[in-house]
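Students often ask why we bother encoding 3D structure as a string. The short answer is that it lets us treat folding as translation between two languages. Here is a chain of 130 residues written in the first language.
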Amino acid sequence: MGRPKGSLTGKRRTFSLEEKLKIIHEYLDEHQSYGELQNRYAINRGQIHAWVKRYLEGGAEGLIPKVRQKNPMMALLHKKHLSAEEKLLLENFQLRVENARLKKGYIVKGAGTQKEYISISDLNTKSSKN
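And here it is in the second language, the structure alphabet:
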């Protein structure tokens, strides 16, 4: 059966930069333990440890979450109606991916869960028997 997945409240709590700094300073300056802070703020001690580590390495700027860049081609791939320019961009991207795969020595057959990666060396293009 195991433990239930997710948080107890069902919602993911986010902490502001000020709240993170307050908790970190209580740990560093007031010498509160991770366990005491965990009980007081109902937050995992591992999360507090990660914040302290990032704070010591990068200061307050280390606590600001980094924005991850998304793949712009995924939006085009799932879009229903593409303009002519978008069709060309998508085709160009797909050809670049295929070219990179060929350089690495494999091709892809199928799609989704039936996707199969085949090594080019496994493909017998020339017959050894004449």
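Translate back mentally: The beta strands are 106-109, 116-119. Keep this in mind for the problem set.
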